[in-house]
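RECORD CONTENTS
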Amino acid sequence: MDSKQQSAVRDESEEGKKRLLDCCTKDGSTDRHGKPAIKAKTGGWKTGALLLVSEGLAAVAFTGVEVNMVLFSKTVLRQSNAEAANMFSKWMGTLYIFSLLGAFLSDSYFGRYLTCIVFLAVMNVGLVVLSLLTQAFMLEPEGCGKLGELCKPQSQVEVAMFYLSIYLLALGSGSIEPALATLGADQFDEEDPEECRSKTKFFSYFYVALNLGSLVAETLLVYMEDMGRWVLAFWISTACGFVALLSIISGAPRYRHIRPCCNPISRFSQVIIASIRKIKLTVPSHGEGLYEARSRNEKDSTRRISHTDDFKFLDRAAVITPSDMLILPDKSETHNQWRLCTVTQVEEVKCVLRLLPIWFCTILASIVFVQVLSLFVEQGSAMNTSTMISGFHIPPASMTSFDIISTSTFIICYEKIIIPLYVKLTKSKPKLPSELQRIGIGLVISTVAMVIAGLVEQHRLTFANEGGEETSSLSIFWQTPQYVLVGVGEAFIYVAQWEFFASQIPDNLKSMGLGLSMSSSALGSYLCSIILSVVMKITTRHGKPGWIPANLNDGHLDRFFFLSAALTALDLVLFVVCAKRYKSIALEKREIGQEMEATA
């Protein structure tokens, strides 16, 4: 073969390789066989839609149990108000903590898809056990389980089985959320401009699916449960759980996967230990001479992270000592990572540390959203719930539907109506607000919502009935503005928060970032409970009824709402300070050819 023929063969080979590269994703994702994912055959909205359906069905399954758990505990298990509320708060807090467990296993060992399958199966086991137990609980007396109709006392074994079932449900539901959201995001190549925009939309639609599933449960299933038809409602939840599992499995041939790579706890510990061991060493300026791998990790799709100058004490972990030099020239991958870490490994720790102030601000923001299911409902129960339809009354908890509807409607209309209007008013290029800016906007709206809730409560008190009555003649529909504004605030804060954590966390910690984001709701719930306890302890001194007594007409719920507004405004100030100081993660650009070679 002469030189011209050899050159032609090389050109043809290069052209074929280029065509293959154009057909494959550029973010390092693979198909189910571990080969580079081909865009036309994997991922995109076909698999993304399946995952959205799964999320909506899983939301119906879980919310159908969660939304009336306190009522179930009181009527079926014969628990007191305090016992039921205490059990519920612990259960919900545990649920969100499990999101961190699911995220950890997803990033480190199982991968997103297997994590979803395993924990959806666990959730369904919990639902089946709960449904069977409920069927047994409600045998005696006949018709028990309705509001005010208590069932017979249950044995300790039966109560223990009940707790086992609901904690299996919490383990499954909490663990799948970050993995399912991240698996959905993995279906879109962030290196492709069009798919990158779709990836951002996916988080919005994921939250819509979550809310629509909750809406179905809070209307249809809640009605059944209020009528005492717990068994039917729980079996419907179980059926939704199984269909959600089948929906995820059906998309298996087309999913794109990001390989799990490492244990983040070990990697973080290595950086801390290595920096302590070298505490006496001088850190070079601007990161010069620090150790970094020669290329990206070829075992997975993670990219290197550029060095930053903050948290310089951690840079000692990447300082190369004479003893390190004995190994590095020939065996750069076999060094002791408890003595020497790469710059990327150090920067992973820095990324998480930089996220913590933002995360803390989202915990404070959750105080508002916690009150939707507690104090807003209590306020509604002290209002006139009658409607224009004779004999029909609005259940106070059903007003949360305005929150869900406004959240979903706003998310759907955001790009179609609000953004074009924003561009028209500002007369500038369509530069969308960043994730941090949207969180800030959400905090402003949440503050306004709490102020309006306080004003509505003041207005309610002026219509309060005299003579010991615990209600007011003011219509419950006066609550609509506060529910709508809280819903819009949720849409701004939570969706932007998910997008922000997903984009600012290192490649090998994507699920962990979403798990951290979701766990802020649990801590916000605990913080709201602490604030409420402190307020009641202070305001009930000297025999006073306090701000939130059993009869709200004797209290000042409006003051607690104004306090919540003040705390949210303070949180906004702290958030602005933290957001201005925040430094975005700087990831290297992917080398597409290397991605192909690494996964081939």
User: Anything to note?
Assistant: The domain at 24-260 is CATH 1.20.1250.20 (Growth Hormone; Chain: A;).
